[in-house]
Design goal:
There is one protein chain. The chain is of the alpha/beta class and 357 residues long. It is built from 15 helices and ten strands. The strands form two sheets. Strands 1-2-10-7-8-9 form a six-stranded mixed beta sheet, with helices on both faces. A four-stranded parallel beta sheet has the order 5-4-3-6, with helices on both faces. Strand 4, helix 5 and strand 5 form a beta-alpha-beta unit. It is globular and about 65 Å long.
Length: 357
């Protein structure tokens, strides 16, 4: 039988029944790609490095895993509309899955603080998009209040079904590797995803499918690092727009994940994020959005500082890349230079070709 999406594949691990109307775009089943050149370049020794390419989901980000669950359960409950606050990826996913279900989507985004690739997705799928003159945290507060006064279902990560869907990525990692990694590095914004992965790993471990549990390593952008600082950030600033969040909804849960797993939540600078972003593209042919590179930047930072302990049989480290690079093409162009103009003459091209050794 052909692949039918995460709800079909992991039904026995999810809160669904035969009466749940599954709304799917065949999300999940994303590649887990080994990255030997990147591992060598950043100085990783004694372990193999893999990249979980969540940008290969239908709308280009990991959000689709949670959205198939959230929208399916919303339909099951009789809802006709969904609402979300978003820095971009959630809006794209909510709009697409609402369209798939024949529902209305209402989206609140921070005005001027969303990559155009993501905004275009929300609009083309027919969502009603409001540009809030404020930040994400203010938009989420507005969404909570709107849901009290209007018949809409919130599909932000405060919706528990989102975590249920997102935990399936951990199942996939174990299914491919045969066990959990020793470390998992990933970006942290609203902090739901790191908790979702941890939930998935724990469930597979309790079922005996995974023999070990990973240390969960989450990284915020330095200009939007409330969990690291221990206080909310009123005006978060970072080029990594997907994690530009000053007061994460899953703050307490992420700290619990950190402590239970023996991991860490740290920060990386925008420059470190951009360096990792370019390394992924040049060394491994993987084009992710800037925020996705925060976990790789964190791995490099910890390796350089000598803070990682590589132990266990067949040690593997996984970095989760949460979104595709085409979400933010302007950032890629600003980091890559411009095409070289030439006349329509092959000799002109040959004179300017520079081959690498």
């Amino acid at each position: 039988m052909s692949y039918q999406g995460i709800i079909d594949r992991y039904r026995k691990h999810l809160p669904v029944s035969d009466k749940t109307p599954v709304v799917s775009l065949l999300e999940g089943n994303t590649p887990l790609v080994e990255a030997p050149l990147l591992a060598k370049t950043i100085g990783l020794k004694g372990a193999r490095l893999y990249l979980k390419l969540e940008g290969q989901n239908p709308t280009g980000s990991f959000k689709d895993r949670g959205m198939t669950m959230a929208v399916s359960k919303a339909v099951e409950a009789g809802s006709h509309a969904v609402i979300t606050a978003s820095t971009g990826n959630t809006s794209a996913s909510a709009a697409a899955y609402a369209a798939r279900a024949g529902m209305q989507a209402v989206v609140l985004i921070p005005d001027g603080a969303i990559a155009l690739g993501k905004l275009s997705q929300a609009l083309i799928h027919g969502a009603q998009v409001f540009a809030v003159k404020g930040n994400f945290d203010q938009a989420l507060t507005m969404v909570r209040e709107a849901a009290k006064r209007c018949p809409v279902t919130i599909v932000n990560s405060i919706n528990p079904y989102r975590i249920e869907g997102q935990k399936t990525a951990a199942f996939e990692v174990v299914d491919v590797l045969g066990d959990a990694p020793i470390y998992q590095f990933m970006p942290v914004g609203n902090a739901c995803n790191i908790c979702a992965y941890w939930k998935g790993y724990k469930e597979y471990h309790a079922s005996g499918i995974a023999k070990r549990l990973p240390r969960m390593m989450g990284f915020q952008a330095e200009g939007a690092a409330p969990i690291v600082l221990g206080v909310p950030v009123a005006n978060p600033e970072t080029i990594a727009t997907a994690i530009r969040i000053g007061n994460p909804a899953s703050w307490k849960e992420s700290l619990k994940t950190r402590d239970e797993s023996g991991g860490a939540i740290d920060s990386v600078t925008d420059q470190e994020i951009l360096e990792a972003y370019k390394m992924l593209a040049v060394l491994e042919g993987v084009f992710c959005e800037p925020a996705s590179a925060a976990g790789v930047a964190g791995l490099k930072k910890w390796l350089t500082a000598g803070r990682l302990s590589i132990e266990g049989k067949n040690p593997v480290i996984v970095c989760v890349l949460t979104g595709h690079g085409l979400k933010d093409p302007d950032r890629a162009l600003s980091q890559s230079g411009k095409p070289i103009p030439v006349e329509a003459d092959v000799e002109a091209v040959l004179k300017k070709i520079v081959l690498k050794n």
